[in-house]
């Protein structure tokens, strides 16, 4: 789709290439106003528990699926959205047991071998530079939206943080700047990918439009 983020496409949402009888769980979540993300989790072909973890209906499908991914839009950081998709607390052990790890609160930083998949929308930096911005109110919201990750941010260097993870990222839409430990910067745009080796960094958005990035964080061991 030219000039369109497929994740936010209503056509993509409603014209699913599989039926309710296929071995998939399909969950839609709100991530920003009208945008939605489809989460598809493949599992063994067996009946799905009728007691849903969340009460969600996917457009274009006739049945309800258990589990709703919870996205958080921060009131005191307008435009910032954190949407955790899935986590594993260790090395996965198929088959899937129908337990949705996002149904309960918990840290987004997993131990060695664990993983976190999340999608984050970064508003323009101008939001945080506004005279109306209240870091004393925004801070607790960030801590609740990204537990574990938010606590790694440096108080004296806003935005800078270091997590004990190997991070894979891909920019889904917009433009964003990766600031490195030495102050150097790398500009990234839609379609660009990155690998972060547990190093100190910050995400900056000096642009006028939000940027959305998908991340997979792998819990790292120690040498």
UniProtKB/TrEMBL annotation:
Signal peptide: none annotated. This is Cupin type-2 domain-containing protein. It comes from Sinorhizobium fredii (strain USDA 257). Residues 159-215 form the Cupin type-2 domain. The lineage of its organism: Bacteria, Pseudomonadati, Pseudomonadota, Alphaproteobacteria, Hyphomicrobiales. Residues 40-64 are annotated as: Disordered. InterPro entries: Cupin_2 (IPR013096), OryJ/VirC-like (IPR047142), RmlC-like_jellyroll (IPR014710), RmlC_Cupin_sf (IPR011051). Gene3D superfamilies: Jelly Rolls.
